[in-house]
Amino acid sequence: MRQHALVLLLLPTVAFAVPMELDHQGRLLDTMGAPLQGEHTLHFAMYTVATLGSPVWQETHPVVVQDGYYHQRLGSSTPLDSDLFAGGTLYLAIAANESPANAARVSVVSVPFAVRAADADNADVASSVSQDAALDIASIHTSGDIHYDGTLQHGEYDHRYDYPFYRLSTNQVGTLSGTGRVDWSNNTGVRWYTHRTIISGTPFASRDAEEQEIMTAMGMAGKQHFQPNIIVNRIEWDSALSWVSFPAPIVSSGTVTYGSYCKSLTGTALQGYWATGMNTSWGLCGSHGGPYSPGTYIHAHPSSNGAGSALVIWPAVIAGNYPLDHANPLWGYWTYQPL
User: Fold this and answer.
1) Distance between start and end Cα atoms, the chain
2) Are residues 120 and 238 in the same domain?
3) Which of 217, 222, 301, 209 is nearest to 263 (CA)?
4) Would you state the torsion angle of the CA atoms of residues 275, 261, 66, 98, taken in this order, to the nearest 10 degrees?
5) How, if at all, do strands 250-267 and 180-181 pair?
6) What per-residue confidence (pLDDT) applies to 13?
7) Residue 10, pLDDT score
8) Both 55 and 152 in a single domain?
9) Of 47, 116, 239, 287, whose Cβ has the fewest other Cβ atoms within 10 Å?
10) Angle, alpha carbons 331-322-166 (nearest 5°)
11) 181 and 212: one domain?
């Protein structure tokens, strides 16, 4: 979407309405406040009125929920026309397994200039907008109830049309010194190695089967160019350990997200933090932590129930609740911003 915005701002012609996608991150809870798990079907609809009326946009998605959290791109099946945001207040309804017409609606509050920047009304106005202003991200925040059939009746959710997430941990890329990971602490009997480096520039079809498998699990199938090059690390440990390896202690507050791409090779899989969900297939791993009180020290260290080995890419801790959706992995190499 950002690339489209830049192109339209530079074209010396009148721009037309542009299809948009909005990142939606939410958390589903049951009536007792416990987070839900598994797959749920959610129906999304937008209205121009707070009650009654007909939806001006709607779509349905199955979402995979982990610890209550899920992520979905709104507009990925039914395009969101940028003109929708030019006509006044919109109201969003979300429902599970029933029509959204009966669900509570919440007004969608956005930054109009940033939304309209991708749909400039004329070339003179567009050319006068700086690049930074054109990329000023519109944010959407809502709260309310999600109505279910059956016993599941309550939820909470929020929307972000992109959001700045910052890395709090060091050495995500995987730089090693001997058998240690630089700026990380290792327990006794833990060793890190470089398994391979996936280099940018090679056509996807020309890559070997392992590189294609890894990049597909990272949501990068078909890509030729990327930054940085992807260092695939191998970690080995000799016994059951209450902690295996972690980046320098992090001082943080609020909620954080631990994540990586990983695959268990031999023995027992790592458990917890950036290795949560590790199994014998490549995939997104991770979990959410917090909310932490100000000044909390965080040691993001997975544990093990026995000896083993695994492959790991880009393990890190970032500030905020970031979606960990295995079906639509968005975990990346994050900008480092120590507190």
Assistant:
1) 30
2) no
3) 217
4) -170
5) unpaired
6) 29
7) 25
8) yes
9) 239
10) 80
11) yes
The 10 Å Cβ neighbour count of residue 122 is 10
Asked if residue 325 is part of any domain, the answer here is no
C-alpha to C-alpha distance for 122 and 131, rounded to whole angstroms: 16
pLDDT at res. 315: 97
Give the dihedral of Cα atoms 173, 174, 175, 180; nearest 10 deg. Answer: 150
What is the token pair recorded at 289?
């932590």
C-beta atoms surrounding 131 within 10 Å: 10
| 82-104 tens-digit pLDDT | 777 676 777 888 877 667 777 77
pLDDT digits (tens, 9 = 90+) for 227-239: 899 999 999 999 9
Q: Are 172 and 122 in contact (CB under 8 A)?
A: no
In angstroms, the CA 103 to CA 231 distance is 46
Mean pLDDT of 132-159: 32
Domain with 307, as residue range(s), is 176-319
How far apart CA 168 and CA 116 sit, in angstroms, is 33
Tell me the sheet residues that pair with 91: 47, 107
